[in-house]
Amino acid sequence: MSDIENLDLSENNNKKVGFVSIIGRPNVGKSTLMNHLIGQKIAITSNKPQTTRNRIQTVYTSDVGQIVFVDTPGIHKSKNKLGDYMVNVATNSMKDVDALLWLVEPTTYIGAGEKSIIEQLKKVKDTPIILVINKLDTIKKAEVLEVIDTYRKEFDFADIIPVSARKGDNLDELLDVIFKYMPYGTLFYDEDTVTDQPERQIVAELIREKALRLLDEEIPHGVAVAIDSMKFDKKLCHIDATIVCEKDSHKGIIIGKQGSMLKKIGSMARPDIEDMLQCKVYLQLWVKVKKDWRDSDFLMKNFGYNPKEIE
Ligand SMILES: Nc1nc2c(ncn2[C@@H]2O[C@H](COP(=O)(O)OP(=O)(O)OP(=O)(O)O)[C@@H](O)[C@H]2O)c(=O)[nH]1
Ligand SMILES: [Mg+2]
């Protein structure tokens, strides 16, 4: 090996680098936290549980090193094959990482959902588990200690840190804590890399996010978005996308009176897509019914949820 190569290697090995999965029950703020940590909106968020359906990887790089964050679906009691898929994605993301962040609501109530996660954490060997108590902005300071105390009795965490993902409170401290547990090594990705998500997938997710935010009851949970085509023409990007739902009655609601709901979804999604693609977007949306797609391996695979792809 030449001197120059030797020099490069020793310099790179001064970096702290590692993979960190963010796990927890639905709606605790995992995707909000990941977006804030990397300073960019990659994962969609909503106030409805079960927003994230896939493993979403993003990269944080600083002078200290590089952390590859893995956002995961919320761990819940699944009611269909899509739910099984989501929970499998989450539990598989707990393997082969350098640290785990378990995100929880800031309450002293530890329910069945939390207990079952604790049981799974007990099976994880040799991985530091950091408890992140989120939504700090919703409780009084004095209550934080009580929450910390309650959780400390349940499990031997490597660290416990309260944050507000939404407001960005304590996130620098959280990054410091995570880096403590990262091994030394060479950067996995170049410094400009932010995510492994293909553009088409982010576009589909941004449309699904607006559907999640604008639609009520059980409709959003049965929605999937497929990008039919994406064509760049000088400074314009033409996108055709289909919103898939499970029932004819849902299709009517998604379209809305004289297409008003579909228009709303499109006009909310377009600026976000334009921001991401950095060009003007012409977005055309369609709605299709695929009965019970959430229980069909074939259709799930078509919409990007392939059970065979989970290791
Ligand atoms: N008040 C407050 N709300 C938050 C905070 N972090 C997230 N939220 C809200 O919690 C809701 C859920 O956030 P998400 O980031 O989608 O939660 P998630 O854990 O990724 O949810 P799933 O993908 O369904 O598992 C959204 O309405 C967020 O705005 C926080 O620090 N404070
Ligand atoms: Mg999420």
What would the keywords be for this entry?
binds magnesium ion; three-stranded mixed sheet; 10 helices; Rossmann fold; alpha/beta; 311 residues; binds guanosine-5'-triphosphate; seven-stranded mixed sheet; 2 domains; GMP Synthetase, Chain A, domain 3
Please give a structural write-up.
This protein has 311 residues and is of the alpha/beta class. The chain has two domains: 3-185, P-loop containing nucleotide triphosphate hydrolases (Rossmann fold, 3-Layer(aba) Sandwich); 199-309, 2-Layer Sandwich (GMP Synthetase, Chain A, domain 3), CATH 3.30.300. Helix content is 37%, strand content 23%. The chain has ten helices and ten strands. It has helices at 3-12, 30-38, 81-92, 112-123, 141-154, 171-180, 199-214, 248-255, 260-277, 297-302; strands at 15-24, 56-61, 65-71, 99-104, 129-133, 159-162, 184-185, 224-233, 236-245, 280-289. Strands 1, 2, 3, 4, 5, 6 and 7 form a seven-stranded mixed sheet that branches. A three-stranded mixed sheet has the order 8-9-10. α7 packs antiparallel against α9 (260-277). The protein is globular, with a radius of gyration of 21 Å. The two termini are 36 Å apart. Magnesium ion (MG) binds at residues 30-31, 43, 51-52.
What count of helical segments does DSSP give? 10
Query: How many E-type strands?
Result: 10
In CATH, what is the class of the largest domain?
Alpha Beta
Shape by Cα distribution: globular
Describe the SSE topology.
Blueprint lengths: L2 H10 L2 E10 L5 H9 L17 E6 L3 E7 L9 H12 L6 E6 L7 H12 L5 E5 L7 H14 L4 E4 L8 H10 L3 E2 L13 H16 L9 E10 L2 E10 L2 H8 L4 H18 L2 E10 L7 H6 L9
Parallel strand pairs: 1-3, 1-4, 4-5, 5-6, 9-10
Antiparallel strand pairs: 1-7, 2-3, 8-9
Helix pairs in contact: 7-9
The structure holds guanosine-5'-triphosphate and magnesium ion.
